[in-house]
């Protein structure tokens, strides 16, 4: 049975204190059509624990697991091999049960891990300073925009049309509450990113320009060109990276002029996990901006005896003293996911990351070449890492559904990412990683030959 610790009198007393007439008053910001007006249709009002377990097992058998079929989904969440040692280490009690180190002197292990994590992210991104992680890539993207408005004291953010649409929506949602102007754009399905069109939208009121690298279609644009244009107008460049493995072979965004680099760390150590929890990465190129960073920063020092130690150096967050000076309401970090990322990165090392990235790109090139030979299929990209876009000449959503019925997870249709944009409806985003075999690539090509004939 449900656990209901509060009585009707308890609820009435609480509502009275906050000045609400009923519980419904707490949901006035939710559109009425999105609210339930009664029990969910089709669900029983109650069932035994054994009956629920049996039912859930039956439902789970309908799933097609990523490891059980040719798998080409990406678009911001990638299937990579995670060594068993990663899970073994993060399951250790001292890590699994650790919480935010409010008393650093008794949390040296956690602080050292976060310090090493920050070092790895800073080196990966080509930046001077990285924080101790955020919730995920999309919220890190918004935090970067908010930081840029504080640094420049401007209120306008120019977003590339090739930024992941989910990231764009998070930024626009948050900006509703800050009054910032978000200038986004429609994506253009073309071989190269539209840098000229993006640069033309930058003006003297622009706080930042947000670009994805590689972008949502898998293309690798000229970041330096956009950085120079942004800086000429006094704006900052924010680079978003959703596939950290790519930085094993392509140049770091910070080295190309990006002022703030953010991204999703899921690809290393974390796994797909049904969509979360994931890991937000955040770094800045110029140390003078460190006090405007969100989240927390761990630092290295020495104790009274001269021994190496770690401290919570900076915590610009709302629940600490001087909370009115907080730069963000981010009040924790994805600590266990950050540990998984750091362990995987440590196991790989620089050489291993470069080898992993090279293998991803090699297999992606094989896939692009094979799919280009399929009648009716056109490969859009002239540049890519392990993800590229193909055009099918028909609605990709229908093709994806048909192939899924045949146990081939073909990729992410652009019609799903951009509902209502028929110009993109025939686009299919295909991701290839080291977990993809050449047999998988052939299975996809064969299935597309049938589906597109």
UniProtKB/TrEMBL annotation:
The family database entries (CDD domains) matched by this protein are listed as: GDC-P
EC numbers listed for it are 1.4.4.2
Q: Residue limits of the Glycine cleavage system P-protein N-terminal domain?
A: 1-447
Q: Name one GO molecular function term.
A: glycine dehydrogenase (decarboxylating) activity
Annotated keywords: Oxidoreductase
EC category: oxidoreductase
Taxonomically, the superkingdom here is: Bacteria
Matches recorded under InterPro entries: GcvPA, GDC-P_N, GDC_P, PyrdxlP-dep_Trfase, PyrdxlP-dep_Trfase_major, PyrdxlP-dep_Trfase_small
Give the reactions, separated by semicolons, that this protein catalyses: N(6)-[(R)-lipoyl]-L-lysyl-[glycine-cleavage complex H protein] + glycine + H(+) = N(6)-[(R)-S(8)-aminomethyldihydrolipoyl]-L-lysyl-[glycine-cleavage complex H protein] + CO2
Cited SUPFAM superfamilies: PLP-dependent transferases (SSF53383)
Its BP terms in the Gene Ontology are: glycine decarboxylation via glycine cleavage system; nucleoside metabolic process
Q: Name one Pfam family in it.
A: GDC-P
| Assembly mode | The glycine cleavage system is composed of four proteins: P, T, L and H. In this organism, the P 'protein' is a heterodimer of two subunits.
Function in brief: The glycine cleavage system catalyzes the degradation of glycine. The P protein binds the alpha-amino group of glycine through its pyridoxal phosphate cofactor; CO(2) is released and the remaining methylamine moiety is then transferred to the lipoamide cofactor of the H protein.
User: What is the similarity comment for this entry?
Assistant: Belongs to the GcvP family. N-terminal subunit subfamily.
Q: What is this protein called?
A: Probable glycine dehydrogenase (decarboxylating) subunit 1
Report the source organism: Altererythrobacter lutimaris
Q: Which gene encodes it?
A: gcvPA
